[in-house]
Amino acid sequence: MADAPHPYPTQAVVLAGGQGSRLRPYTDDRPKPMVEIPGTGTPIIGHQLKWLADEGVTDVVISCGRLAGVLQDWLDRAQLPLRVTTVVETEPLGRGGGLKHAAASLPRPEEPWYATNGDIWTRFPLREMAAFHRERDADATLALARPRIPWGVVETDAFGHILDFIEAPPSPYLVNAGVYAFSAAFRDLLPARGDHERTTFPRLARERRLAGYPLPHGAYWRAIDTAKDLDEAAKELGTQGR
After folding, report:
1. Is 6 a domain residue?
2. What are phi and psi of 148, to 5 degrees?
3. Higher pLDDT, residue 103 or 239
4. How many domains does the chain have?
């Protein structure tokens, strides 16, 4: 008798093959997910793996690219909370192609799965996102964040009087947070090469098979793109100086 499927995904792909050019010099000798948030003693990928394990994930496939050996060496030495497999692109496949290539190594191809970009620092309940995904019978669900605008803004009335100055307010727009829930069949919808956000996602959106899950109020989320993001993440998490 076959085992019953898990109520929530227990497998995930982490995309860790980016160039990290905006994070230099931190990424001169390591891929972006191997950059440490100041004060934590752990690279970004280590925090991601712990979060995924805390959310019930038991198996992760990491898609590697530039300086893959640095990441693989760390994985070999680290005490990991789940099983990890790495795959390396021998030639550039694009984001969609890389995702498809990595998903081929998931241990349970008949079950749904998560995916996350390797430069995302976040904490929110993945099981709630998976339930949202299942309730909408979607092929793919994107986590949606509302990042803070990096500038102060000015609030005015209809007559042009300045009412207030607001420092770094939340954006009025939702953005793709780089965390996903996918159906088992989603892998077959991905391009072998190219960017799924320009091909697969727009097609699914037109067919109403793409869902968006707004991160819960108060959930922490930050994309680590620049040195300033590293410093801000350290301050926000209270790790500076620890």
Report:
1. no
2. -80, 140
3. 103
4. 1
What CATH number has the domain bearing residue 75?
Answer: 3.90.550.10
Residue 163 lies in a domain: no
pLDDT number for residue 49: 92
Query: What is the pLDDT, as a whole number, of residue 103?
Result: 93
Average pLDDT, the chain: 84
Largest CA distance in the chain: 72
Residues 46-66, mean pLDDT to the nearest whole number: 90
Contact (Cβ atoms closer than 8 angstroms) between residue 116 and residue 15:
yes
Name the residue with higher pLDDT: 236 or 136: 136
pLDDT given for residue 3 in this prediction:
45
